[in-house]
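thread from #wetlab-drylab

HS: before we spend reagent money on co-crystallization trials with NAP, can we at least see a predicted complex? here's what I'd submit
DV: go for it
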Amino acid sequence: MQSGRSAAPVVAIVGATGAVGIELLGCLERRNFPMSELRLFASARSAGKTLPFRGKPLAVRELTEDGLNGVNIGLFSAGSSTSKRFAPVAVSKGAVVVDNSSAFRMDAGVPLVVPEINPASVREHKGIIANPNCAAIISITPLWPIHRTNRIRRLTLSTYQAASGAGAAAMEELRESTRAYLDGREYRNTVLPHPYAFNLFSHNTRIDPATGYNEEETKVIQETRKIFGDSEIRVSATCVRVPVLRAHCVSLTFECERPISAAAVREILAGAPGVKLVDDPEKNYFPMPKDASGQDPILVGRIRQDLSDPSGHSVAMFVAGDQLLKGAALNAVQIAEQLL
Ligand SMILES: NC(=O)c1ccc[n+]([C@@H]2O[C@H](COP(=O)([O-])OP(=O)(O)OC[C@H]3O[C@@H](n4cnc5c(N)ncnc54)[C@H](OP(=O)(O)O)[C@@H]3O)[C@@H](O)[C@H]2O)c1
């Protein structure tokens, strides 16, 4: 995007019909994002469909190189291969691309941004800005204000990831397989590798034989280091897909350089951007996907001292965040707002 441009930008959503794309439309509308034009792109399958925006139906077009002419901001959410092919094209035509896929996240010249954590990195872009992995965003947004106060040197986390993280088709598979299970019908899963109804399984990404970690876990580990700008932070992750339609949860245990109490963590998080405390031990009320769904903030609770560390340096907590919003669309639109 050319600097000094005064008119409202032409914005394109690539992957507009997907689980994230629909939320991108919602975020642009809700946040009243200034635009002179909004173009919606998807695959040839969706050409001719319409999606509602600001009270009117907007046509979805098949993504082509020519369609990107004149685009100032491209919000890409159509998978890595589409991003690899079309994001450089959009950039060559003058656009800045905010990319939701994993295609460019670990590239040295590509900022990986969570606006609550490293907003200044946006200015270092060379045309592409990467939106981090959804489990990474949900996990580390609440950790950052703690890390700034008392450096986290070690983090262990386990995720409880919803169907929506695998896209619209996975959400449909969860709905359909649950109906079939309750009706006593056979169901053949085609989107995810294992039966999903009343089941859970290790994240459906390839395991690296060298480490034993799957790709999702590796992304969380590497992206945490890049976003925090701290290559020394020690992270171990276990990523699991659970039969929840929307919103990821994460159990986090972290060890700080200096002693830290649960009360201190609660106090830090009470005023932190992008998070909301839901921490009521008396009522046993803590973050749940049901409450996080459709919400911008990441819910944080179950904040307690880690009893396995008698030195008092470690705290455990539990978070829930809508990964279609803060884990994807909202974070991307927040980044785009910084480009205005
Ligand atoms: N779901 C999440 O929570 C989440 C979070 C962070 C990042 N992401 C990333 O965001 C991207 C989209 O995820 P999603 O969950 O929204 O997936 P999805 O529901 O499966 O949607 C995929 C979108 O990409 C479009 N598309 C597919 N192939 C295309 C092509 N060749 N050309 C143009 N458009 C194409 C689809 O269009 P059709 O409808 O026409 O097929 C659809 O709009 C992925 O890279 C994913 O890794 C997802």
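DV: Residues 15-21, 42-43, 45-46, 63, 77-80, 82, 100-101, 134, 164-165, 167-169, 323-324, 327-328 surround NAP (CB under 6 Å).
HS: ok that's useful, forwarding to the group
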